[in-house]
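Students often ask what a holo structure prediction actually looks like on paper. The answer is less mysterious than it sounds. You provide the chain, you provide the ligand, and the output is a string of discrete structure tokens encoding the 3D arrangement of the protein together with VHF.
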Amino acid sequence: MKERITVKIGSQILTRKDGTLDVTRMSALVDQIAELHKSGVEVILVSSGAVASGKSEIKVKSKLDTISARQLYSSIGQVKLINRYSDLFHQQNITCGQILATKEDFSTRRHYLNQRNCMSVMLENKVIPIVNENDAISVTGLMFTDNDEMSGLVATMMGCEKLIILSNIDGIYNGNPSDPKSEIFKKIDITKDNIEDCIQSSKSSTGRGGMTTKYNIARKAAEEGIEVIIANGRRDNILVDLIKGKDVISTHFIPSTKKTTSIKKWIAHSEGFTKGEIYVNQNAKEVLLGDKAVSLLPVGVTQIIGNFETDDVVRIMDEKGKLIGIGKTAYSSEKAKEVIGKNNKKAIIHYDYLYIEK
Ligand SMILES: Nc1ncnc2c1ncn2[C@@H]1O[C@H](COP(=O)(O)OP(=O)(O)O)[C@@H](O)[C@H]1O
Ligand SMILES: N[C@@H](CCC(=O)OP(=O)(O)O)C(=O)O
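The corresponding structure tokens follow.
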């Protein structure tokens, strides 16, 4: 089978200090993606840079609020960005296509599958999908934390073996990156290492979520069996070197070897889209957290919160209100309330649609 990877490029790499597109860097990255593509690697590109490149294009007369500014700049900048990509890939005899997604597009299974189908048909036809958040319409609560979050969702959705997050830094440092004593973590084993405290709240001038989202998303993707690499997009030939397995400076997250179905992967990433909560008793909690794959039965349920429909994703909470899992419910909230605590009723969440946070 062909190797399939998602590459995420941050705003900082694509824009110069004055806010204009750094075409030299873009071109170098496109050349590397083209080389990988021609050698048979399927690449999905998640690219930021719309807002940053739109800013340098227009002078606004009156001061804009944050949302309007993001909408205006991204709508202008995305055109510039994708046109430039299209030209650069065209010079390599490669066709690329654009997908602009919102967080909502990952929240319903139908939208999720539509997106997956679109990217699959592009890859089958040797077209490189270039994905960005649809900044013009996704505002405030509907927004992704940043494109790092979206790149994790895309890599999972498309069953990628690797997710390479390119930023303006060589990887995750064990202290302040500007402190010369700080060193890069070369490998992170998510089952043992917790390096959250090493991450500073600082981020690049144009970046949105900083290293924190990169770290959180990298852990989640690695748990689902994807090898995640955080590396510096400004280093020459970085992508090709990483894929060839060269020892280049970067942080690798060791992927879990556990097998997960694609619906479970979708559920695992759906915490932000849940429509309600199902509270379970201590006994049900112990069974769900045990080694066996079990369904959640009405007999172990103590309370239903929120209004949801059949097939919505809901949170599963223990008696103390701690989140223990997420699942796709087989009942609406109304029907679920009727069967609380009852025996011999069909499962509220079948184990094929259940993700337990362990
Ligand atoms: N421990 C750390 N190691 C590396 N970078 C860190 C760390 N803590 C915070 N950062 C910051 O994270 C930034 C990268 O995130 P971000 O600005 O969102 O980049 P991008 O625009 O590429 O997504 C780095 O430039 C750095 O300032
Ligand atoms: N969708 C936005 C991306 C914002 C974002 O996530 O930026 P970054 O943290 O640099 O990847 C844009 O294209 O400007």
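The chain is about 35% helix and 20% strand.
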